[in-house]
Amino acid sequence: MAIFDQYAMQDPRTQYPKAQGHADEQQPDPALDAILKPQADHGEESYCGANRLRGRKALITGGDSGIGRAVAIAFAREGADVVINYLPSEEVDGQKTLNMIREAGPKAIAIPGDITDEKFCKTLVQQAVEALGSIDILVNNAGKQQFVEELEDLSTEQFVQTYTTNVFAMFWITKAAVPHMPAGASIINTTSIQSYQPSPGLLDYASTKGAITAFTKSLAKMLVKKGIRVNAVAPGPIWTPLQQSGGQPDEKLQQFGNKVPLGRAGQPAEVAPAFVFLASQESSYITAEVIGVTGGEHLP
Fold first, then answer.
1. Among all residues, which ones are annotated catalytic?
2. What is the DSSP letter of 28?
3. Domain assignments of the chain as residue spans, ordered by start
4. CATH class of the domain at 54-293
5. pTM of the model
6. Model confidence over 65-100: pLDDT tens digits?
7. Contact 260, 18 (CB under 8 A)
């Protein structure tokens, strides 16, 4: 599945094959990229850096797999020192990502832990600052998604856990990180097409993404006086372990992403460049914005 030249012009409809999962390939939450079928492309073979983030210090949550892994690889190859966070149960994916970003040359550190714990969020930021000296780029990417078809089957426990993972942890980490972020720093949150086009069955997830979008725009206006930019990336259907661990029902998993205008799901490698752009000085005049990476399901 790997694309070996990110710069070669090619038909985006067929740049990657359709990522179709099967019922017997579902895995428990939190899922692992190590057992994802078919495998996702994170830019391992294709992403070529150009020193766009040379000397920057980045903290990425959910950095073990999926979009987080692709962003970590891209940031490292662009010259940034990178700290990734993930759940202890995702250690096998986390170590693989860590090895890949270490190969890029800059400093690479892993800090496993559960961001649904406010105390750990503060510890995570403090350890990242101690390791790197500052935080110039904060990527709030970790997320929880579980499909529940009927409202009566959506438990309070899941609703609270989804909000704690997707929204409260973002707030706790951002609040702890901002005092360590210099003017010129960038915060990038992972929202979703679900913020604008919510699907039935993703009530809790879609509503957290709506909150993230609003949080991003409000925080950008709050932090502009500090010279800190705040933006978000809104992926559409991207093939990650999140989808195969209850994020999609079996019937949708088998046709995942096929209904977007480009006719296929995206790969994490196709999302990472948007994060690089928003982290770099090339986007110096952009704040309070959302970049959609949606396969043609455009944002309003």
1. 205
2. P
3. 54-293
4. alpha beta
5. 0.94
6. 999 999 999 999 999 999 999 999 999 999 999 999
7. no
